[in-house]
Amino acid sequence: QVQLVESGGGLVQAGGSLRLSCAASGRTFSSVTMGWFRQAPGKERDFVAAISWSGSSTYYADSVKGRFTIARDNAKNTVSLQMNSLKTEDTAVYYCAAGSRRFGGSYYIFEDDYNNWGQGTQVTVSS
To answer: Which bin fits 88, alpha (ψ -120 to 50), beta or left (φ > 0)?
Structure first.
């Protein structure tokens, strides 16, 4: 089991940047894929980015490719999401998630690929 706590959300103007962090506890963190999802008001939760257990592979949704960067530090049990050139459509609650299988890759784009979720952090981008 992995327990996850997100932080770093807030209010930012369009074009600005935010960095989200996810602190994990649990012995299996360093061996599972980690991902970020987001849910806008009235919409389903969508995949944003994922990183393999070793950090050697990443995968992004087309909507954030080139603007967001996912990274992990297995020594510190953290995963981050650097968000640049933010747009109003990036407004959502962002969730950190831990993969359900060990030593997986980064193509974990479905909610069913994950079995542990954080409580979410709000990101609001104003125009």
So the answer is: alpha
Integer-rounded Cα Rg, in Å, for the chain is 13
CA 17 to chain centre: 15
Q: Would strands 10-13 and 121-126 be described as parallel, antiparallel, or unpaired?
A: parallel
Name residue, tokens 């360093």.
30
Q: What is the pLDDT of residue 10?
A: 97
Intervals of the chain under pLDDT 70: none
Cα gap 26→2, rounded to integer Å = 5
Residues 6+ apart with CB under 8 A from 75: none
